[in-house]
Amino acid sequence: MEILEKLFKRHKDWCNIVESFGCNSDTAEDIVQEMYLKIGKLVANGKDISFGDDVNHFYIFRTLTTLFLDHKRKDNRSGEVLEEIEAEQEEEVNYDVKYQKILDALEELYWYDRKVFEIVENGESISELSRKTNISYYSLYNTYKKVKKYLKSKL
User: Fold this and answer.
1) Closest CA to 40 of 7, 15, 66
2) What is the SS3 assignment for 49?
3) 49, burial (CB in 10 Å: exposed 0-12, middle 13-18, buried 19+)
4) Which strand (E) or helix (H) includes residue 10?
5) For residue 91, what pLDDT band results from cuts at 50, 70 and 90?
6) Backbone angles phi, psi at 50, to 5 degrees
């Protein structure tokens, strides 16, 4: 008898195991179907998951657990993304106000920090600026990075 046929004879058991993880019967059914597909691919590639005359139940249990956890991770990520999208849609962004906040925050900075930020933001690379001014690349880079962090905190 083929491995998948042996697996299917215990279909209800597999569904009950997945339901015991805490999901509804429809989701459990989907996860068990994914398990059949995964095991089918493994068997087609020559993997032997038999244990005597039966299948290796521990291997099936681990496969179901992994598929369930993957499903939960996907659910959580999609929920977070949907919440972020909904939050962005609810609040309208006033870019003029944000731009003015950035300008005000730049005015609060020391002149050197402000000038380095403005030059780099206008398109000059940090390495070019370093060569022209004989100021250390890392000094300029750290200044630019510090100003960006400061501006983000102000927004």
Assistant:
1) 7
2) coil
3) middle
4) none
5) low
6) -85, 155
List the alpha helices (DSSP H) in 10-110. Answer: 11-20, 25-44, 57-90, 95-108
Task: Decide: 44 and 2 in contact? Cβ < 8 Å.
Answer: no
pTM exceeds 0.70: no
Q: What is the CA radius of gyration of the chain?
A: 29
Pair of tokens at residue 54: 């039966």
What domains can be seen in the chain, in order of their start residue?
Answer: 3-90 (1.10.1740), 95-154 (1.10.10)
pLDDT digits (tens, 9 = 90+) for 35-87: 888 888 888 888 887 777 788 888 888 888 888 888 887 776 655 555 555 55
